Amino acid sequence: MSKQNKLAEAIFQKMMLKDYCSQWMGIEPILIEQGHCKIKMTVKKEMLNGYGILHGGMAFTFADSAFAFASNSFGRLAVSINGSMSYAKSAKEGDVLIAEATPLNVTHKTADFDVNVMNEAGEIYYYFRGTVYRSSKNVI
To answer: Rounded to whole angstroms, what are the CA distances from 15 to 21, 48, 53?
Structure first.
């Protein structure tokens, strides 16, 4: 494992220690690398809306977690300044979802990421795009 990816993994572990929302969602890492991450979760009954499908806010939160882990993985504290999501398909209780965050553009002060939320077969359910502000503070 490269030095950059070891740092990304250490940052993920540090963030998860106090990320009680991601803990509650049952998020598990699949791949943590500098600028890139894949995480998974299983949709719980408590995440459903009144129509029995994953609440849009929960879908956004899951994508936002992947976005946070990927954008902070470079070592500098990054906070979201913009995010939007398109909802292509509805997830249901018991579905296993994977969120994959990849960078589009990383500059000294900002970074843009795409996050695709998909099922285990790779069928995309939700498309997220976000921008972070990259501070000069180190995460670790």
So the answer is: 11, 26, 28
